[in-house]
């Protein structure tokens, strides 16, 4: 009996060891196969001379499939580990890839800027806070702070306001899709295209000549003198902000509209039965229900206004008192090659958004999950 | 009853009228662009586009012919000679744009939705810190990342490769993607998950079977924005893809059109319109996903 017992135990240990080895082998095998496939695809794409259509197809399948495979394989490996380890590792299967990529593409460059912001133009000598003193005292910088504030207030207010209005109205119209598509159209245009479009609106020719800009044509039609819109301080900022509103209202509308569809119809019906007016239903039921969406949309457009660059750069190049923070940053970095100042202004931009983010996080913590 | 009905139809009329006014205001600049694109070159630069409805009614498709024309393109010049010139064959640029754009939309959405799920519904050390940092990265101006990343790419041999530009667009698109999807995924009612986790489903299964399908409206909207951003991007393509014409995307070709031919506005109008077609098609294709409100239905059921 005892002999037999040890026998089975021996066999048990051996087979257990074999099973363990087999498990480890399989655990290693799958990732290795995955890696080989990815590597082969990478080499094919880098060196192949196949027709372009085929390369494009392989590239798309390889790229998208590769990422899906990466998730699948890491999850598979994590599930081979003992349960208590797997539990700890699982969240990182989900957030890990994002954190790695963000660290590489945005976090490290930001840290590098922070470091460079304490050095001079050639990044050689330490200058302490001199670049930040410049950022907060230079007259051009102060002008750009004020302008950015105007962009945030008018741009965000305009885009979110119109977006909400159109989303609410379109929700009550049978032609919803047509209206929404037309409002969304500007989003499909590149900044190069938008620049061309708005020149046809704001173009200026001296009085007496044929106006090719729509706005001046209207002004002269009513008997007034044509205006060079982009030189009219401080209104030229507003004319530029109009372009942002025109571009971003479609974004606000789409997101808000998606949220409106999520408002349960039963609540609205209940409100109607209680005799609430349309406006009352919007104010007391719909707005509170989509409030978190409104915060999201406002936040993204505030950030877009804060980073606004292309519109100013292509339309006025920051002249006539239309300078904004991002255009100042670009000029210091790529025109004056003053890396210290350019980096400091970038860091100021990052700091400027902290209040907005703080508000967002407070909203988030109100609906904490598990 | 009839009174109520009349009131209702009046209300509808008002709604549609306000919308009509807004839509007209929004469309006028684009109509101007479109009309300009089908006018002869001289008229575009000398008279307003609205004059086509009056004295300058000449229309021509020359701008489009020149923009879309094959690699060889013949026209008759002012002296009456037939001239062969190379047109802007945009078909290759179209394929390049697709090759760059499709993975640059899908990859960040996969990664962002996984991360958003992780941040919203899983507990791990440093969750708040990591999430705050991710969202703060939303404001980092792209310009500060270009030079260091380009240096990394040169040492990795990634410059001018599709993989390089996909990863770049992924990196720059992730903060907004995670932020938007987190907002959506974190509002999925808790009981949807509870029963699944009680049944012992693994997080990856919950993610695949529940979170992704439930997030379709949010994913569809995000897909559109990421698509538009990548499709219309010039800066990232210029820096990471380089200028060679065999990988150049549509926006690069458009920018070259301005560069190599001076301020050819009449060509730009046509080019800008051609470049708009695909984003608009994508919008119409995906529109039904976020118009239907899948979320409301699935939670109730």
Brief overview:
The complex is a heterodimer of chains A (370) and B (301). With 370 residues, chain A is an all-alpha fold. Chain A has helices spanning 2-47, 52-78, 83-116, 130-137, 139-171, 176-184, 191-202, 214-221, 235-261, 265-273, 278-289, 291-306, 310-315, 325-335, 339-352, 354-365.
CATH architecture of the domain at 91-300 in chain B: Orthogonal Bundle
Main pleated-sheet profile of chain A: none
What pattern of helices and strands is seen along the backbone of chain B? HHHEEHHHHHHHHHHH
Largest sheet, spatial ordering of strands of chain B: 1-2
CATH class of the largest domain in chain A equals: Mainly Alpha
Radius of gyration of chain B: 25 Å
CATH superfamily of the largest domain in chain A: MetI-like
CATH superfamily placement of the domain at 91-300 in chain B: MetI-like
The CATH class name of the domain at 91-300 in chain B reads: Mainly Alpha
Strand content of chain B: under 5%
What is the fold-level CATH name, i.e. the topology of the domain at 91-300 in chain B? MetI-like fold
Q: Give the number of DSSP strands of chain B.
A: 2
Average per-residue pLDDT of chain B, rounded, comes to: 77
Share in helix of chain B: over 70%
Number of continuous helical runs of chain B = 14
Query: Termini separation of chain B (Å)?
Result: 34 Å
* Total strands of chain A: 0
Helical amount of chain A: over 70%
Biggest pleated-sheet summary of chain B = 2 strands, antiparallel
Residues in β-strands, percent of chain A: under 5%
């Amino acid at each position: 009996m005892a002999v037999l017992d040890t026998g089975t135990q021996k066999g048990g240990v051996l087979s257990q060891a074999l099973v363990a080895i087999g498990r480890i082998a399989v655990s290693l095998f799958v990732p290795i196969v995955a890696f080989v496939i990815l590597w082969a695809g990478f080499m094919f794409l880098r060196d192949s001379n196949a027709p372009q259509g085929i390369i494009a197809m392989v590239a798309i399948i390889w790229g998208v499939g590769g990422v899906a495979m990466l998730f699948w394989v890491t999850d598979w490996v994590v599930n081979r580990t003992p349960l208590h380890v797997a539990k700890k590792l699982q969240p990182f299967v989900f957030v890990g890839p994002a954190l790695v990529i963000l660290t590489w593409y945005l976090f490290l460059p930001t840290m590098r800027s922070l470091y460079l912001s304490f050095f001079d133009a050639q990044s050689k000598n330490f200058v302490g806070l001199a670049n930040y003193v410049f950022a907060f005292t230079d007259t051009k910088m102060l002008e750009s702070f004020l302008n950015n504030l105007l962009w945030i207030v008018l741009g965000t207010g305009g885009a979110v306001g119109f977006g909400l209005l159109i989303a609410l109205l379109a929700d009550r119209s049978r032609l919803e899709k047509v209206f929404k598509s037309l409002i969304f159209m500007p989003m499909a245009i590149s900044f190069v295209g938008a620049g061309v479009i708005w020149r046809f609106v704001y173009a200026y020719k001296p009085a007496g000549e044929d106006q090719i800009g729509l706005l001046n044509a209207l002004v002269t039609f009513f008997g007034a003198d044509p205006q060079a819109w982009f030189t009219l301080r401080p209104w030229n900022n507003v004319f530029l902000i109009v372009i942002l509103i025109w571009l971003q209202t479609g974004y606000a509308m789409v997101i808000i509209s998606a949220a409106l569809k999520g408002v349960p119809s039963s609540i609205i019906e209940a409100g109607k039965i209680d005799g609430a007016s349309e406006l009352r239903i919007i104010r007391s039921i719909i707005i509170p229900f989509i409030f978190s969406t409104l915060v999201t949309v406002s936040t993204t457009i505030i950030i877009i206004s804060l980073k606004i660059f292309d519109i100013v750069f292509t339309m006025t190049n920051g002249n006539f008192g239309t300078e904004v923070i991002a255009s100042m940053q670009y000029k210091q970095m790529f025109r004056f090659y003053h890396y210290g100042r350019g980096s400091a202004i970038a860091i100021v931009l990052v700091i400027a958004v902290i209040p907005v983010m703080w508000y967002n996080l407070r909203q988030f913590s109100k609906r904490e999950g598990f | 009853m009839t009174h109520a009905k009349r009131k209702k139809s009046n209300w509808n009329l008002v709604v549609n009228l306000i919308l009509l006014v807004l839509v007209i205001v929004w469309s006028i600049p684009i109509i101007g662009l479109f009309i300009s694109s089908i006018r002869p070159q001289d008229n575009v630069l000398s008279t307003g586009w609205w004059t086509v409805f009056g004295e300058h009614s000449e229309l021509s498709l020359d701008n489009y012919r020149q923009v879309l024309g094959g690699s060889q393109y013949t026209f008759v010049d002012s002296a009456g000679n037939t001239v062969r010139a190379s047109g802007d064959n945009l078909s290759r640029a179209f394929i390049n744009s697709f090759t760059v754009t499709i993975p640059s939309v899908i990859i960040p959405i996969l990664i962002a939705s996984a991360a958003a799920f992780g941040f919203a519904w899983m507990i791990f050390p440093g969750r708040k810190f990591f999430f705050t940092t991710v969202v703060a990265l939303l404001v980092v101006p792209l310009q500060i990342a270009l030079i260091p990343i380009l240096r990394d790419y040169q040492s990795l041999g990634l410059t001018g490769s599709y993989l390089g530009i996909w990863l770049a667009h992924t990196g720059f698109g992730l903060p907004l993607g995670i932020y938007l999807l987190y907002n959506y995924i974190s509002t999925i009612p808790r009981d949807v998950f509870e029963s699944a986790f009680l049944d012992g489903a693994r997080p990856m299964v919950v993610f695949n079977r529940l979170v992704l399908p439930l997030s379709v409206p949010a994913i569809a909207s995000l897909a559109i924005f990421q698509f538009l951003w990548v499709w219309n991007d010039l800066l990232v393509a210029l820096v990471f893809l380089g200028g060679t014409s065999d990988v150049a995307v549509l926006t690069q070709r458009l920018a070259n059109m301005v560069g190599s031919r001076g301020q050819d506005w009449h060509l730009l109008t046509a080019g800008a319109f051609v470049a708009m077609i695909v984003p608009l098609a994508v919008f119409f294709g995906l529109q039904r996903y976020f118009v239907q409100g899948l979320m409301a239905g699935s939670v109730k059921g």
